[in-house]
Prior knowledge:
The structure is a single chain. The chain is α/β, with parallel strands linked by helices. It contains 10 helices and 14 strands. It has a domain at 3-90. Helix 7 links the parallel strand 13 and strand 14. The longest helix is centred in the middle third of the chain and has 18 residues, at 160-177. The two termini are 13 Å apart. One iron/sulfur cluster is lined by residues 108, 110-112, 115, 117-118, 155-156, 188.
Amino acid sequence: xxxxxxxxxxxELALGGPVRLPEGYLLPCRLSRSTAGPGAGSxxxxxxxxxxxxxxxxxYDSGDFELHDRDGTLSLTKGxxxxxxxxxxxxxxxxxxEQAFFNLDQRCIYHCAFCASPRLGKDATxxxxxxxxVTMVRKALDDGxxxxxxxxxxxxxxxxxxTVDRFVSCIKALNKEFPGIPIGIEPYASSEEDIIRxxxxxxxxxKLNIESPSRExxxxxxxxxxxxxxxxxxxxxxxxxxxxxxxxxxxxxxxxTDEDVLSMVETLCSMGVIPILRALRIGEHSRESLESAIGTxxxxxxxxSVFLVSEQKKIMERxxxxxxxxxxxxxxxxxxxxxxxxxx
Length: 344
Ligand code: SF4
Ligand code: SF4
């Protein structure tokens, strides 16, 4: 299959609804129950095809796509029409294939309209302690799983400073136990000092999310966060972690223009930050809050995703940045969105 067509298919699969499993079909590996990211709140499986992969919610009763198993050969149809002739189901370590990705705490003192994490049940992150996380990674390795990276995210619990303390302690515990495995972190840092502490604890890469390319939309969906503060901390992060080791998620599909997206891609790249374009997915946990913040929006199309990520790649090339070398988190995983330099 041509690379352009693979990118379009990946996008179509990633943006569409669940995969319906054949009646009584047992997945060859356990389901991933996400508490963060586009799949938060649903049970998913990772479908691989043509060198790329997508994590999808799976169900037995309905779905936009249907899985078929013919003597062990798996394929997908979409609304009954052929979609992918051959797929395989990849195991996840924790949340992600070949990666142990933990949400330290899904609770959050903030209320971003698109974020499902704080709206999940109280025990969604299973009271993860540093010891429990170390034990879980050890078990995955002992079970023979490939663990190329460890990544940590968290809501903000108590205060940004207390949450950074939590990250620091967990990074130190993981680094001591698994010194060769890179650690990616997605904290909400509020000072340069926080960022230095996270780096000194042993983090390899950091992701601080700008969330929207438009200040106006950001003010509506993240009313308690500070846009300029995030840009300042991104700049601090490049100083501390180095160019190309800092990433930032930007959600599109909330009413911004393509020009808004590409202009923010340019801004981030000129700072040495790798942008991650994340198409808005509206789930049952975020529909109401999003609609009251920004009204109803048109769904992101696969064509728009391919266009934006193709343009993103050109801008990144001009700034000497690539997503292909990212060692942790979403760019390494690639299950939810197109990754420039890999898919496009
Ligand atoms: S800061 Fe916003 S996006 Fe991050 S966990 Fe809290 S509510 Fe979600
Ligand atoms: S791309 Fe990111 S949010 Fe999606 S499954 Fe992978 S690590 Fe999780």
